[in-house]
């Protein structure tokens, strides 16, 4: 009798030796059946919870999006422009600024841990880490990013250029926002003030020595205006 016939007869007699092919076939069916049911159930649940909402873009047009029941609507001002968004409770301010508004200066070096300062923006006059700030908490807030600071012609931009206070430039927007916030509250900072204010901003290129002179130069320029 051939090996194939022997294997078939043994399985029919119920000795407990199930072929590998049969086991995998049956196991796949048993595991797959509840999985399919779970997918179908979760799909139905999601469709029941999700709702359509409109997000107003900078040019005044609206974009339809799907949001959960936990989403909230906020209004905020970014670089002088007013926006109205429906945001999820887990969205960060950084995500809102980059993905919804399209301003890419807030970076993400540390993976959203609030450890590097590259995502720093100015909110209501204070530098904040946009990766740790929830968008739903920003209703009515006034936000400034490096794009807005540059557009306004603030002297900190030229001061950074004159003092070569950057190399790759990845962390620069965060430094610029922190520096501008310092100058807004202290128009006559010392070098120690600048170093203290910028202590939470990291630069992998190690341009630290050039930042205080840039801040002091910008302060002198502001006094002329």
Indicate the CATH architecture: Roll
Total number of helices: 8
Helix content: 40-55%
CATH class: Alpha Beta
Low-pLDDT runs of 5+ residues are 1-53
Largest sheet: 5 strands, mixed
Count of folded domains: 1
Protein architecture, described:
The protein is of the alpha+beta class and 225 residues long. Mean pLDDT is 81; it is low at 1-53. 32% of the residues are buried. β3 and β4 (81-87) form a beta hairpin. The chain is 44% helix and 16% strand. Strands 4-3-7-5-6 form a 5-stranded mixed sheet, with helices on both faces. Strands 1-2 form a two-stranded antiparallel sheet. The protein has helices at 3-13, 20-49, 93-101, 146-151, 155-162, 172-185, 191-197, 211-224, and strands at residues 51-56, 62-67, 72-78, 81-87, 120-123, 126-129, 142-144. α6 (172-185) crosses α8. It contains 8 helices and 7 strands; from the N terminus they run ααββββαβββααααα. It has a single domain (49-224), classed as Roll (Ubiquitin-like (UB roll)).
Would you spell out the secondary-structure blueprint of this structure?
Layout: H1 3-13, H2 20-49, E1 51-56, E2 62-67, E3 72-78, E4 81-87, H3 93-101, E5 120-123, E6 126-129, E7 142-144, H4 146-151, H5 155-162, H6 172-185, H7 191-197, H8 211-224
Parallel strand pairs: 3-7
Antiparallel strand pairs: 1-2, 3-4, 5-6, 5-7
Helix pairs in contact: 5-8, 6-8, 7-8
List key phrases describing it.
five-stranded mixed beta sheet, disordered N terminus, Ubiquitin-like (UB roll), two-stranded antiparallel sheet, about 220 residues, 8 helices
What would you say about this model in short?
The chain has a single domain, classed as Roll (Ubiquitin-like (UB roll)). The protein is 44% helix and 16% strand.
